[in-house]
Amino acid sequence: MDHTRDNPLKRFTAFWIAILMVTSFGIALIITQPFAPDKTDKAYEMMGEGRLEIKEEIDRAQDDALNEAALSGALQAQTKSFGQNKERKGNMPVPGAVPSPLPVEKPAQ
For the chain, which terminus, N or C, has the lower number of CB atoms within 10 Å? Predict the structure, then answer.
């Protein structure tokens, strides 16, 4: 823009005209949205219902097959084994490294 034709009043009015245009476009979209055609496919919805029925059957079968008592027992055993494996505090073994030798207890004399 040429510096002789530029002034703050023109910039101010251009800004508000742009805001008014964007707002009017948004309002026009909101007003015309109910008249837009529905783009859902009926065949897709029918296939979706069938898939949901299959999923519900699978979920029911999995719930019936789950043995919660055995699962809780296994989880408790796992938590106990976590507490027993404290060979080195704060160190993690490096893959491929030779394991550290276990200390040999001296026989009582």
Answer: C
* Number of residues in the chain: 109
How far lies 26's CA from each of 30, 32, 33, 65, 80, in Å?
Answer: 6, 10, 11, 53, 62
Confidence class for position 79, pLDDT limits 50, 70, 90: confident
Instruction: Report d(CA 95, CA 38) in Å as an integer.
Output: 58
- Contacts of 93-97 with C-beta under 8 Å, sequence gap 24+, read none
Residue corresponding to tokens 């783009």: 39
pLDDT confidence of 55, banded at 50, 70, 90? very high
Return the domain boundaries, the chain: 40-67
